[in-house]
Structure formats: C-alpha cells, structure tokens
Amino acid sequence: MTASQLPQGIFLTFEGIDGAGKSSHIERTAQAFRDSGRCVTLTREPGGTPLAEKLRALLLHDAMDPLTEALVAFAARRDHLVQVIEPALARGDVVISDRFTDATFAYQGAGRGFDWDKLCQLEQLVQAVPALEGLGAQHPEAAIRQPDLTIWFDLPAAVAAERLTTARVPDKFEAQPGAFFAAVAGGYARRAEAAPQRFARIDANTSREAVWQQVADVLQAKGWLQPGVLA
Ligand SMILES: Nc1ncnc2c1ncn2[C@@H]1O[C@H](COP(=O)(O)OP(=O)(O)OP(=O)(O)O)[C@@H](O)[C@H]1O
Ligand SMILES: Cc1cn([C@H]2C[C@H](O)[C@@H](COP(=O)(O)O)O2)c(=O)[nH]c1=O
C-alpha cells in the first residue's frame, strides 16, 4: 500500500475523573474499530512507552510539587507522542489513549492549582510535531497534535468515589478527597468549554449499557463506525 492509499489515522482520547468508568468502554471501542477492519493502537497516559511507564510510576506514587507533576506528565507525553502516537497515526491506525493532555489540565491545573497559562505553554511546546509543521500559519488550532475526538466521561465526584471504594488499593490521586475530584471535574468542564468541537460529553452516571450507547452514538455520528460493529 502506498502512503496515499493508507487510511487516515484517528486520534481518540478518553477522559474523566478516577472511577468514571472509562476502562471497559475503551476496550469495547477498540474492538469495534478492529471489527470494522481498522488497526488499533491502544495506549494510555501517563505511559505507553517504557520510559513513560517509569514516569507514570513516579507520578502516581511519589510526592512532588505541582510544577514537577506537570513536567513529569508532559515529559512522559513527549516520549509517548514521538515513539508511539505519531508513528501509529502516520501508519493510518486508530490511536485510542486512556487519557492525554486534558488530564494534566484537570489534575495538575484544576486539581493541584497549577497555573493554567503555563500548562498552555507546555502543551504548545510538547505537542508540536514535524507532521504538523507549517499548518499553524493558516489554522492556528492545527499547529500542535490534538486528539480528533475526546470522549469525556462526566460523573459527580461522590458517585465515582463510591464506585472506587470496592475497586482497588488507591494510588496518590485516587487517595485524594472528594473536593479534589470536584475540582478536577471542573477542569475537564473548562477544557470542554474551550474546545466544544473536540469534546463529546458522556453522562457517565447511568448504567454501563446506557453509557455505551452514548459512546456508540458519538462514534457513529463521526462516521467512523457503522451500527453493525457497535452492537
Ligand atoms: N456505569 C457503571 N455503573 C456502576 N459501576 C460502574 C459503571 N462503570 C464502571 N463501574 C465500576 O466503577 C469502577 C471504576 O470503573 P473503571 O475502572 O472503568 O473507571 P475508570 O474511569 O477506568 O477509572 P480510572 O481512570 O481510575 O482507571 C469499577 O469497579 C467498575 O466496575
Ligand atoms: C495523564 C495524567 C494522568 N494523571 C492522573 C490521573 C489518574 O489519577 C492517574 C492515571 O491513572 P489511570 O488509572 O490510568 O486513570 O494519573 C495526572 O495527574 N496527570 C496527567 O497528565
């Protein structure tokens, strides 16, 4: 297959506070794309490369100040972009990432209170990639790599906390109080408001099947998947 015959890559991210219920829907989305004949790169942040997974362990378990947290998250992201996301998009894969930059704005920005504008600067620096060079002059929004679509699982912090009590031993973030997650949820809402064309809000405070129906509707409305593979 020549480069011009390759399908266009799709970059899809899932976001939400801890316990919002993303996991099973990410797997189901990946399977639906595979069933439609697409190659899928399924990945996560922080993580997705050996180096970024080491940084993930530090971010999730070691105490550090908010700037350090932001830098660690963006360092992991840069490696992930260069090593995994950009090559997969260039191959025409559907890249599905469990979290991306919106999480840094939500957790380090809204949750920890780190300066939003400085996060914007780091985003511009880290997500500039050769494949998009030159596009920014006419379309500033196209100057950096951003997801084509972000599926945001919106769930009240109290409901997420209830779901997580029986789920697992908490990491550094999961151990935070409800007020932290209420702030994080506000951070996601702020990001969604700033980029409504990129975000699809899912009401996650309902049954798994009703949540899946919303996800399926979004993917179908994009024209990426047909009802047959979304059942
Ligand atoms: N719609 C739902 N109703 C009730 N419980 C749910 C629902 N969806 C998921 N759960 C349960 O809530 C818990 C958290 O779900 P899950 O691990 O999928 O969330 P997550 O968004 O992937 O969280 P994290 O980002 O922290 O990994 C799990 O125990 C899961 O079984
Ligand atoms: C990308 C990113 C993530 N986080 C936080 C959010 C979660 O609490 C953990 C990741 O755990 P999950 O089980 O994979 O959801 O890390 C963050 O604080 N900053 C980030 O940029």
Q: Notable features of this structure?
A:
single chain, 231 residues, alpha/beta, 5-stranded parallel β-sheet, 8 helices, globular, binds adenosine-5'-triphosphate, binds the ligand Cc1cn([C@H]2C[C@H](O)[C@@H](COP(=O)(O)O)O2)c(=O)[nH]c1=O, EC 2.7.4.9, ATP-binding
Summed up, what is this model?
With 231 residues, this protein is α/β, with parallel strands linked by helices. It is 49% helix and 12% strand.
Percent of sequence in beta strands: 5-15%
Kindly report how far apart the N and C termini lie: 31 Å
The major beta sheet can be summarized as: 5 strands, parallel
Rg estimate, integer Å: 17 Å
Strand order within the widest sheet? 2-3-1-4-5
List ligands, each type once. adenosine-5'-triphosphate, the ligand Cc1cn([C@H]2C[C@H](O)[C@@H](COP(=O)(O)O)O2)c(=O)[nH]c1=O
Point out poorly predicted stretches. none
**Helix percent band:** 40-55%
Oligomer: single chain
InterPro entries: P-loop_NTPase, Thymidylate_kin-like_dom, Thymidylate_kinase
GO molecular function: ATP binding; dTMP kinase activity
Enzyme class: transferase
Catalytic activity: dTMP + ATP = dTDP + ADP
Describe this structure as you would to a colleague.
- With about 230 residues, this protein is an alpha/beta fold.
- The two termini are about 30 Å apart.
- Strands 2-3-1-4-5 form a 5-stranded parallel β-sheet, sandwiched between helices.
- It is globular.
- The longest helix has 26 residues, at about 65-90.
- The chain is about 50% helix and about 10% strand.
- Ligand LXEULUCI binds near residues 60, 73, 103 and 108.
